[in-house]
């Protein structure tokens, strides 16, 4: 099944207690697409970049069979840039600089050949743009959406309107509390699911993730890593692994969504082991399956 991904492509300057990496390839759609590409060869991207987005970056995406016909290139502009510094616990970060550049005028146009996409994954962008994308898609089998506190606080009504057309909503625990207005995650999930998406995933960073469906709650552990270099893009990488598994198995039910959460968690655990997209751009299927099996072993109770 084909996956359409819409979001940002960016360059990041990242500083952590363990090093720094400048001019690092990033952006929500980049992480999602690279992660999903290990599960299906039908990944399509819509986004915008400037003249500073070099051919080598396109070559990387193309090497993973990612179709970039929907990526607009503005010759007289610069690509979206972000700079941030992580604190010692790696859960808190300070944004040092944000330059929207060509992303400020981004008007997503979905190419005709993408409009019949089976799955649509909407990265963290303006909810009005997310809705505009959905208006261009014929009959997707599944729509997944991500967001952040900036849009929850700045465009709550627009976000809620978009959520009415979403099947699966992914956000972190602080965002869930902010959107629902309730400190309890179980109650928050019920409130948010009443806004439209029947399936909700709440990411809890180093404490794993929760999947909420009509059938109940599934709790996935986080993978215990000795070395975490950079958490940037881990959430987007999770989304890519999640939707990638569902596209690969071509089945959407509770069991496969639980597996998809573990595959998403597996991909996210790889992402944080190096800066930017370096690790997830250089994986193989055996590594991914081994990490998935390791996740299964974490919760086993038999011998």
Q: Which strands sit side by side, in order, in the main sheet? A: 5-4-1-8-9-10-11-12-13
Q: Could you give a short account of the major beta sheet?
A: 9 strands, mixed
Count the beta strands: 13
Number of domains: 1
Distance between the termini: 37 Å
**What average pLDDT do the residues reach?**
94
Observed structural traits:
303 residues; alpha/beta; UDP-N-acetylmuramoyl-L-alanine:D-glutamate ligase; nine-stranded mixed beta sheet; four-stranded mixed beta sheet; 10 helices; 13 strands; globular
Produce the secondary structure layout:
Blueprint: E1 3-6, E2 10-16, E3 19-26, H1 28-36, E4 43-50, H2 55-63, E5 66-74, E6 80-86, E7 93-99, E8 119-122, H3 127-134, E9 142-146, H4 149-154, H5 156-163, E10 168-172, H6 173-180, H7 185-193, E11 199-203, E12 209-213, E13 216-220, H8 234-249, H9 254-271, H10 285-298
Parallel strand pairs: 1-4, 1-8, 2-6, 4-5, 8-9, 9-10, 10-11
Antiparallel strand pairs: 2-3, 6-7, 11-12, 12-13
Helix pairs in contact: 1-8, 3-5, 6-7, 8-9, 9-10
């Amino acid at each position: 099944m084909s996956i359409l991904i819409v979001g940002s492509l960016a360059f990041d300057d990242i500083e952590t207690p363990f090093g720094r990496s400048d001019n690092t390839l990033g952006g929500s759609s980049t992480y999602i697409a690279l992660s999903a590409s290990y599960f299906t060869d039908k990944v399509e991207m819509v986004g915008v970049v400037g003249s500073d987005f070099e051919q080598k970056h396109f070559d990387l995406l193309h090497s993973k069979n990612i179709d970039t016909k929907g990526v607009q290139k503005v010759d007289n502009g610069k690509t979206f840039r972000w700079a941030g510094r992580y604190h010692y616990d790696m859960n808190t970060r300070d944004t040092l600089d944000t330059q929207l550049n060509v992303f400020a005028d981004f008007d997503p146009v979905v190419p005709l050949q993408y409009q019949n996409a089976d799955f649509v994954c909407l990265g963290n962008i303006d909810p009005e743009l997310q809705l505009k994308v959905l208006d261009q898609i014929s009959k997707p089998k599944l729509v997944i959406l991500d967001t952040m506190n900036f849009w929850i606080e700045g465009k709550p009504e627009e976000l809620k309107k978009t959520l009415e057309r979403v099947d699966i909503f992914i956000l972190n625990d602080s965002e869930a509390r902010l959107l629902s207005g309730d400190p309890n995650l179980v109650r928050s999930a019920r409130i948010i699911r009443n806004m439209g998406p029947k399936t909700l995933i709440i990411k809890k960073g180093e404490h794993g993730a929760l999947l909420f469906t009509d059938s109940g709650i599934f709790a996935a552990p986080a993978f215990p890593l000795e070395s975490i270099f950079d958490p940037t893009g881990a959430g987007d990488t999770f989304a890519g692994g999640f939707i990638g598994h569902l596209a690969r198995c071509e089945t959407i039910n509770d069991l496969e969504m639980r597996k998809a959460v573990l595959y998403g968690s597996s991909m996210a655990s790889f992402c944080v082991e190096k800066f930017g997209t370096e690790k997830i751009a250089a994986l193989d299927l055996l590594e991914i399956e081994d990490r998935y099996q390791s996740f299964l072993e974490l919760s086993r109770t038999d011998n």
